[in-house]
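Tutorial handout. Part one gives the primary structure; part two gives the three-dimensional structure as tokens.
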Amino acid sequence: MAEPPSTPPEPAPPAPVPSPAGPARSPHPVLALPCRSLWRSRHRPEDPDRFLASLRDEARRLGRQGAGAVEFHADACVLDARYAAPGPWREAGAILAAEGLAATVHLPYVWPDLTALDQTVWEGSIASIVTALRATSPLTPLLAAVHPANYATQALVLATPADQRPGLLDELATRLVAALRRLQTEVPPATAAVLALENLEGMPWALFDSVARAAGVAVCLDVGHAVSNGDDPVQLARTLGGRIRGLHLHDAVPPAGQGTGGAAVGRAHLPLGQGSLRLPELAAALAETGFAGPVVLELETGDALEAAIEKVRAAWSTAYR
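Part two.
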């Protein structure tokens, strides 16, 4: 797949960035578990006062489960104006600090689209994500993951005929590089340092890699998305090395069709052990590179989450001993 057209020569890969202020970093990866008290429903954030009143107990419970960090979905910042200001996040950060926990952030991904060919949508998407980056900065997150596109554009790519897909992807990639560069200039350096581009199905890995390099951002390796895109996350972990800012972890099955990064995709966000992810090998590959960043377990609560925590603990204790 061709690299983004009209982009300047690639800069050197982003160097590993220093950890932001906050709880002391471990030489081992930090398990991040999702915050549920932030949300009343899948599309509606909780009232900030109720969220903060519930967060301390949730943080303590997550800590007992083995979390070193709590994951927050910053779509709340675009769905409720009260979360677009730093106040609630400052209080949340203080609660986490009191419990010895760090934070990770998933930047808005349902509504914004950094690849939008519609200029108004593109500008608004940048503004939404800048707002979320600034608002959540009091959390001093270890990771702020951003999607390359929203689900509508992803569906368009997957539905585009194979002979037309390269041209579309090149146009989208050019928009994405420009957007990522804008994001980094519109927030403080410490905030820009934790920004990482997450891989999604439908985007060939070579193109994803060239975009991240051209934009000068780190990578959030979503291992489930890699598997369901037909890529090998173990090999990617070795290849990326110090460019990985964080991981999103869930199991997946690869596409039934031929090729990678094409119209066929598998199924992701499965409980660990129900797909083809080779977790012990992944942990070993990450240990070889010295990875010690956040690993966000993207699973629902319940038995599947508890079982996944045990699998992660076992894989990491073996790989990092």
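Part three, for discussion. Residues 1-25 have pLDDT under 50 and may be disordered. The CA atoms of residues 14 and 216 lie 6 Å apart.
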